[in-house]
Design goal:
The protein is of the alpha+beta class. Helix content is 65%, strand content 7%. It has a four-stranded mixed β-sheet, covered by helices on one side.
């Protein structure tokens, strides 16, 4: 079912399911303990309990849909193994009909094997379990039909389970597909809401920063040199927010603004998005870039986050127009590699 597990639909992973399994194991133990009259040995009865107990636990815990081949094989043989252990020590004739308890208990395993996509294996297990009962009746001189008479009644519940499986499994596939579509739709809506929220935040920030200057230009008279510088600094900050989103931090924005006001040409680039750096590494790089900008008196400073997949995570290129350019490299932990 495209990676889905029908156990999720039937709550087979829940505490209630394990409680039912516990009652099943207890029922097997009670049946074995209550039917020891006339048996030639006691231990096979309890060995059969262990075999069926292991099968029911495996039924709940085994992954995959349908069940894996290994899990299927183990559950399939649990019925005939349990039946063989018990029938090997039964008296002839039986002292009570409950002494054939492995027949009914194994059908429980096979019923849920049908639901978990292994219908043919379930029928094979039932056939082998019935063969043990029929063979015991024939070998002990009670006749083939006698063994068939008390074992064939288990065909009915497995037949109903087969029809149930053919009904529930296609419905389960449709339910899982609807669930997948719902998850995709919710994720898409969340992403769209995040985009709108980001847009509104950017519009609000732009309105707070640019509106006063734009209003001043519109109202006249001609802006002063200080106001022209403020416009240039604002334009550079807006450019940084678009081209270097991974570097936009208050300390670095302040250092860049101060450096630009001193005449330093500052360029910040983020070629790494959307693969963001680790927060600690980014803070180290931002701190180093802020220090470099605070120390710059002239020339140009370029701060760049490099694309992912390179040994260097970021570079700071310093050109003070005197001693030439100086390049500082930072690794993916934010530490200086130079």
């Amino acid at each position: 079912m495209n990676g889905q597990d029908i156990r999720d639909l039937l709550s087979m992973r829940s505490a209630a399911a394990y409680a039912v399994a516990g009652f099943f194991i207890l029922a097997c133990l009670v049946c074995a303990s209550a039917t020891l009259t006339g048996v030639s040995a006691v231990w096979p009865e309890y060995a059969a309990v262990l075999a069926l107990s292991a099968a029911v636990i495996l039924l709940l815990r085994a992954p995959g849909d349908p069940l894996t081949a290994q899990s299927t094989a183990l559950m399939t043989v649990s019925g005939p193994v349990a039946a063989a252990l018990v029938f090997a020590v039964l008296p002839v004739p039986l002292t009570g009909s409950l002494q054939t308890w492995p027949l009914g208990m194994s059908v429980v395993i096979y019923t849920f094997m049908c639901v978990r996509g292994r219908t043919l294996a379930a029928w094979l297990g039932l056939a082998l379990t019935m063969s043990v009962a029929i063979g015991w009746a024939a070998v002990t001189g009670q006749g083939f039909l006698y063994g068939l008479s008390f074992s064939a009644i288990n065909i009915a519940p497995l037949l109903m389970a087969t029809f149930f499986a053919f009904t529930i499994r296609p419905l389960a596939a449709a339910i899982f597909e609807l669930r997948k579509q719902s998850t995709v739709r919710i994720a898409s809506q969340a992403a769209a809401a995040a985009v709108l929220e980001e847009r509104d935040a950017r519009l609000a920030s732009l309105d707070a920063l640019a509106r006063p200057l734009l209003q001043r230009i519109a109202d006249g008279p001609d802006p002063t040199e200080e106001e022209v510088l403020a416009c240039r600094l604002l334009e550079a900050e807006l450019r940084d927010s678009l081209r270097a989103r991974g570097l936009v931090r208050p300390d670095l924005a302040r250092a860049a603004r101060s450096a630009r006001a001193r005449g330093v040409e500052v360029m910040m680039l983020d070629d790494r998005s959307p693969n963001a750096l680790d927060d600690d590494a980014r803070e180290r790089i931002v701190a180093a870039a802020s220090s470099a900008l605070d120390a710059a008196k002239a020339g140009a400073v370029t701060v760049r986050l490099l694309p992912p997949g390179r040994p260097v995570a970021a570079t700071i290129l310093l050109d003070d127009l005197g001693d030439g350019a100086h390049r500082v490299e930072y690794d993916h932990t934010g530490r200086n590699r130079s």
